[in-house]
Amino acid sequence: MHLIQMDSVQRWMEDLKLMTDCECMCILQSKPISIEKDEENELILSSQHSTCDNLQLLLKRAWIISTEFTRIAQKLEKNRWQRVHSMTVRVNCHVRSMINEHSMFTRNSSEQMHQFEKLLIDKCSEFTAFTERCIQTEDEQILKSMKSCINETLTTVAQYFGQLIELILTNEAQNLLRQIELSDNVYITESALSSLFSLTQEGAHLCRIIAKEGGVAVLFKICRQDCFRCLYPQMLRTLASVCCVEEGMHQLEKVDGILCLADILTDSSHSEATRAEAAAVIAQITSPHLTFTQHLSSFLENMEEIVTALVKLCQEASSGEVFLLASAALANITFFDTVACEMLLQLNAMKILLAACSDKQIVDTPYSRDQVVTILANMSVLDQCASEIIQGNGVQLLLEMLFEKSSSGNSAEVAACERVQQKSAVTLARLSRDPEVADAAVKLSCIPRLIKLCRSPTERNNSDSVLVACLAALRRLAVMSPDGLEESDFQQLVKPRLVDSFLLCTNMEESFV
């Protein structure tokens, strides 16, 4: 009798642990009670939050639940039934807490939403009951037969969960867009815009939802109302985020968005901040990394006006941020066609950009210099560019860019510095077909710096792209000025095939220890 009682107590203690975990989740709203690995995903939640904060908590909870689904599948694969059950209980609690939290800050949930919530809760309960039966048996055959059922149930729960989250986010986007569209109050519109912008920062999927719900049209509606002029920068910043996805681009094309952007850029009555944010949208939609380009036909129709306005914005920029946004847009446009480069040449853009680089308050980061040297590299395909470079002391600037180094060690900044070095070498290589530019480069000691970058991996941060560009520039200058190189440099860096010199330079500091 005593033995039976002891077994029951032990079993009760084991069950109690799961029950208290559950109670902790529901009543204390997932405040962490342990620092063990399986508890590291718990959330500290508060009941007092704004709509935006509540949505952030919902997304965090959703991420945790998705992670738990993955971990349950992994434990299930290893037949760790006890862990599968305890994690299933925790997911069940997370799902219920998430639904309760969402109900607290959502008014008038749709019938469809309630149906999905009920489906998900019922399926989670069924899932927990399945896994509980698994820990009550040790028969391998029964466990094996139940495993496929649990896998199917897990898949179904994950699908229901994904559909519910999609519905919640769509509903939230619809509510915010409705607020923006119907409101004539600046403060209400500003608050809704702020929440919408926060949504766009949660990833491409949310941007797709906003675009599909007509977000681009709603945002441009603001741009056509003078009473909301003070909100234009905020609206354009949100628009730039939505246009990072293809659905946003399609919407932009449908509502003649590029024409509206061109009007904003060319209207000097708009604030510099508004025009800078319009430039940011242009930079986004003209990114050379985008695989979809259907919107570019209407862009080309307005390109001359846009390019002219962007050059003016670069020239009159009052801060480094404004210059960065305008120059980034110009840099992207130069990838389109040499027509854009010819426009820039006619607008004296080369002179303006070179002058801006001498002002450390305006061109103050490697990111800005990256945009400038991108424009120079793309313009350098034009023969007329060489004289502009000479007149603007551009060769000296390109040499300085070959010395670009990160001051912070931040990975993004280091990558920007590598791009500056690479593109300055590319620009030198292209421009050095002109004897006058090559002569200026030799006199300014560009050759020793190029050799240093080739021979010292640390100088180029071990970048292969910088090495290739420097070898190409060095070979071009060597043709124009063969006396500028020592014999060993010529034999190793110029005379062999480019690939052989590349392999030689990449192995220079290889350790054989």
UniProtKB/TrEMBL annotation:
InterPro entries: ARM-like (IPR011989), ARM-type_fold (IPR016024), Armadillo (IPR000225), Insc_C (IPR045789), INSC_LBD (IPR031938), INSC_LBD_sf (IPR038205), Inscuteable (IPR039921). Residues 4-49 form the Protein inscuteable homologue LGN-binding domain. The gene is Insc. It comes from Nothocercus julius. GO terms for biological process: apical protein localization; asymmetric cell division; establishment of mitotic spindle orientation; regulation of asymmetric cell division. This is INSC protein. Residues 61-513 form the Protein inscuteable homologue C-terminal domain. GO terms for molecular function: cytoskeletal anchor activity. Gene3D superfamilies: Inscuteable LGN-binding domain (6.20.200.10), Leucine-rich Repeat Variant (1.25.10.10). Pfam families: Insc_C (PF19427), INSC_LBD (PF16748). One of its GO terms (cellular component) is apical cortex.
